[in-house]
Amino acid sequence: MKKLFISLPVTIPYQEEDSKSSSIKRSICIFIIAIFFCTAIFSQSLTIGSRSYLVMNGAPSLVMKDAALINNGTFSEANSTVKFNGYADTTQSYLSGTSATTFYNLTSSKSAYGTSLKSMGNVRNVLNVSSGQFYCDSNLTLLSDASLTARVDVVPASSNIYGKAMVQRYMPGRRAWRLMTAPVTSSNTIYNTWQNGGVYESGKGTWVTGPSPTGGAGNGLDASPQNNISMKGFNYTTQAFTNINNTKVPISSGTSGNADNNGYFIFVRGDRIAENFNYISGSCNTTVLTSTGNLQSHTQTFSTATDSAKYTLVGNPFASPIDFNSITRNNLAKRFFVLDPSLGTVGSWVMLDDIDGDGTFTKSVGGSTMTQHIQSSQAFFVVTSGNVGTASIAFPEISKSNGVNNNAMGRPLAPHKIASIRTNLFIIDADTALLTDGAITEFDDMYSAKTNLDDASKIANTNENLGLLRNGLSFSAERRPMLTINDTIFLKLWRTTQRNYRLEFVPSYLTNTGLQGFLEDSYLHTSTLVNLNGTTNVDFNIDGNAASADMNRFRVVFRAGSILPVTISGVKASLQNNNSIAVEWKVENEQNIVRYEIEHSVDGVIFVKVGDENVNGINLYNWIDLHATKGNNFYRIKIVDANGEIKYSSIVKVALNTSMISSINVYPTLIKNNTIHIQLNNQVAGVYQIRLLNNVGQLMYTHSVISTVGNSTQTIKLATSLTTGNYQVEIISPAKTRTIQKIVVE
Q: If you count DSSP H runs as helices and E runs as strands, how many of each does the chain have, helices first?
């Protein structure tokens, strides 16, 4: 290592050049340390004069041995480390000056006494107090931005950090719920910290709203258009969130220095600019929330709920990431729940656990970026594992994930390959798929068929939820014995809206089970093959029919590989030149079928058998009706299997006239089962808009369908909330022509 020795005191002045100089107006005498890993050792003080610079290019180390750094000018830190060491008292080892000093890494390593900040000092990366004491004196700020959040490294048992500090947490520009904490004790109020004292400054603080707001002169709550509660705590005794109705209280309730920080459920809209209340535009910008108080160090222990399967909200007590592998759990499952603000529209819950103790965590939402490393200022839920009278969670200094003893828990075991199928829920908007929730089912004979603490419960999101239903309970992860024939995963889907969604199935280690999975849709009465050797995507829609939003609409059934349910992928009927009608249908997964029967109707209600077809093995069928009647002809296919089970295809319609006239028809006109059919005869291909209006012209329902050239039948399920009466169905063609027909709802 190269050492650079400089006699002290050192003053770096600013000097004016002679005004007559033609090439240089002024020059600055700049002291530059540009040698990597060089060390400058001082014995009194290093003074940066007014309007002078100390530039630390690259990543050098500057060692202040029993010396002070006095900054009255500009200190440029780059990726450098400034280290205060030696034996002298804090009267020698300190930072002072009229300028705020930003360090990349700041280290205090004193054999006796300590280091103090007598002027503003900011840390961008790591504060390391490796020995001696460190005095913040309300001048320390741990910075946070889009690229880096400062952290406090492991603090030895013989060292302490005294005085108040400011801990920042950068928030990306996305309005969402978050679980947060202030990693400090003896704190300032919520109002003076996260609300920035009620003052708007770009990129600082956020709104905290609630009913009956009286602002800074009263309860501290901000007024908003809806006055919705945007910040909550959690009571582990009642197992319920509690509204924050007053923000003029300390953000951390304790002052003892031992696990005094609280966890909060907070909706972050961005900074305190008024436009961030504009929900319609989705307005939200980045902001930084700052917590002020004494930094917590050494082992921090929280009491938790004592009853089995109960939750406790815990805040990460350190201004540093921590590794859940390295914490101490007393009667707690190795499991935690966090909020991922990047999921869904306003954030979604993610469960992570390691029930087999191999150091590898399973996530309920595979696409989430959450890991076992819990970030500075992040809170999380833990769950009690048994009724044992006491339960707690402790955070030793070595739990800091970038500390000096990351392997304190020992070498991880080799991961055990667990068969599983992960289910993800996406919101589909145009060509964009937004991951909003997920769940996972794992299969291994070490698991019980009964529900127990191996199964991770489901915490409900504000919006869309996907869970696993088992024995009347909802789970984000369920564990069960290895798959057998007819095993079923019951999906639970709730808090959806009328829009397009996608279910994604991602299997692992299920190829050799000899089974096949099928997604059964109770609303559309379909069965879709789920690939057990690759990803399967199934798109679906929530429309105006309540049955489409039934939370128990979907399930995955596993059957023997040789038995596949029949699926008719398309039924078509077309008028031929001789006024006969050709009925065609294509079959997928055709096994165990005896025959197909063709049924005909003139009103779409009463059907009679007019023909049948035996299974031909090529999965494509064509039947000609030589005796079609003039007017409307309705057809459907009756499917008969070897077990006597009967299923029906959708209904198609063809109008037989003496001349080929293009038409759009709605049938039946008397609606009894909330379903109508729209027959398109000789129509162009494209998107058709369907609108339902009541007898006073109010729009009750809208839908769009895609049709190919020729004749096709579209089936529309109407909302069950329609009252008895007369309605109009309006069909707008791709050419913008309108067809209006009346229907009656009984």
A: 0, 62
Residue carrying the six token digits 């319920």: 240
Rounded distance, CA 575 to CA 577, Å?
A: 7
Question: pLDDT (tens digit, 9 = 90+) per residue, 146-181?
Answer: 999 999 999 999 999 999 999 999 999 999 999 999
Asked if residue 514 lies in contact with residue 469, where contact means CB atoms within 8 angstroms, the answer is no
- Whether residue 405 has pLDDT greater than 70: no
Distance CA 538, CA 423 (A): 11
Beta-carbon contacts of 246 under 8 Å, excluding residues fewer than 6 positions away, are: 219, 220, 221
Query: What residues does 665 pair with on adjacent strands?
Result: 679
What is the DSSP secondary-structure string of 690-701?
EEEEETT--EEE
Across the range 698-707, mean pLDDT stands at: 82
Tell me: the pLDDT tens digits for 260-290?
Answer: 999 999 999 999 999 898 766 667 899 999 9
Residue 449: CA atoms inside 13 Å, Cβ hemisphere, count?
5
Please give the Cα distance from 161 to 445 (Å, whole number): 50
Question: Cα 644 to chain center, whole Å?
Answer: 46
Percent of the chain with pLDDT over 70: 88
Return the top range by mean pLDDT from 99-103, 529-533, 604-608.
99-103
Q: Report in angstroms the alpha-carbon separations of 591 from 218, 563, 622.
A: 73, 7, 19
> Taking a C-beta distance cutoff of 8 angstroms, is the pair 524, 534 a contact?
no
E runs forming strands in 172-247: 176-181, 184-185, 231-235, 240-243
CA 657 to CA 713: how far, in whole Å?
18
Structure token pair of residue 394:
């402790």
User: Which residues make beta-bridge pairs with 174?
Assistant: none
Calculate the dihedral angle through the C-alpha atoms of 496, 498, 499, 500, rounding to the nearest 10 degrees: 70
Nearest Cα neighbor of 379 from 462, 461, 316 is 316
Residue 5 burial class via C-beta count within 10 angstroms: exposed 0-12, middle 13-18, buried 19 and up? exposed
Task: Give just the sign of the alpha carbon dihedral 409, 414, 418, 423.
Answer: positive
DSSP string spanning 488-538? EEEEEEES--SSEEEEEEEEES-GGGSEEEEEEETTTTEEEEE-TTS-EEE
Q: What is the mean pLDDT of residues 562-574?
A: 67
What is the Rg, in whole angstroms, of the alpha carbon atoms belonging to the chain? 35
Q: What is the pLDDT of residues 188-206, one digit of tens each?
A: 999 999 999 999 999 999 9
How many angstroms separate the first and last alpha carbons of the chain? 91
CB-based contacts of 203, cutoff 8 Å, min separation 6: 271, 285, 286, 287, 288
- Residue 312 scores a pLDDT above 80: yes
List Cα–Cα distances, 676 to 672, 685, 690, 692, 729, in angstroms. Answer: 9, 21, 11, 11, 10
DSSP 369: -
304-to-153, 180, 256 alpha-carbon distances in Å? 26, 18, 18
Pairing of strands 646-648, 631-641: antiparallel
Side chain identity, residue 266: I
